[in-house]
Amino acid sequence: MESTAFKLNFNSPIHLSDARSDYGSSNKMVHSDTFYAALISVLTLMGEEGKADLGCTISSLFPYTTDIEKGDTIYFFPKPYIALDKFTGYDDIKKLKRIEWLDKDYFAELLNGEINSEINENSIQKNFLSKRKFDADFIVSQVIPRVKVPRSSEDGDGTTDIFYIEKLYYKENSGLYFLAYGNTELLEKALNLLQYEGIGTDRNVGFGQFGFEKITNFDLPHPNKTNGVVSLSLFNPAKEEDIKKMTESLYAAWEIIKRGGWLTNQADLGKRKKSVYMFSEGSIFSKETNQIEVLGKVDINLKPETTENFIAPEHPVWRNGRALFLPIKLS
Known about the structure:
Layout: E1 3-10, H1 32-45, E2 56-58, E3 62-66, E4 73-78, H2 93-98, E5 101-103, H3 104-111, E6 124-125, E7 128-129, E8 139-148, E9 161-170, E10 175-182, H4 185-197, E11 210-215, E12 226-231, H5 240-246, E13 256-259, E14 276-279, E15 284-289, E16 293-295, E17 300-301, E18 318-319, E19 323-328
Parallel strand pairs: 5-7
Antiparallel strand pairs: 1-10, 1-11, 2-10, 3-4, 3-10, 4-5, 6-7, 8-9, 12-15, 12-19, 13-14, 16-19, 17-18
């Protein structure tokens, strides 16, 4: 089965809420479960009700930009939870620790258990590691004030509040991309509407709208037989015994993040979903394989419970914890 990439080219600013829903700071990537939920939501608008599975597995959305000299696309991957100083003689440990993104070439070398390319001052730009020449400021941040005006004197005691929101802009030929593994027919159907609906917050004022480009037969780094896998998506294991086996290696490394958020349908605005914990992108687990792996639970229902003051929606609130994994050689 071959992988497909989708490049999102944003034609409006975007704000991606963090775990604290702090408008003053925007995330720089879109997690796979958030994007998957957005795709399922627009399918419902198109008459595909009750679906939890798109029929394919997707990665989270990662940044891409353009090589200044060659004009081709530079795809960035999240840095796995491996210390880079073991692969290089570069002695500025602080700069190495700040690296969050590796271009495809460095990422492929790391999957093979070694980095042969030199790491130096020229290859580290901000939190990106790349041998290629690119504009390191391809993501532009702008923080602007906004005003929340009460609808009545009873709303917030009639007080007008000022808050700040960080807007992100992507320069020309830059944006976010994601990988899809499996049948993308439903996904593409959803994208055709979602591009106009937008992603992120403040979609009602035009934020988060994009055009997209499909790249078939995307060449994913793929080492031969390995003893580990690295996640490109958020991951929620289907069975407890699965994760016990996958974490037994001394080289397994991960971060766990809490996922939840708010209901966005008009009738239930302001109500929290249930929460679930997931392993983040870049998490490394023990598993012998020589192929791309798809692991995790697809149909996590975060529908809240009915309480005295709140009647839960009749429909399920799906969250996807199925992840795309690439083989990686662990020392």
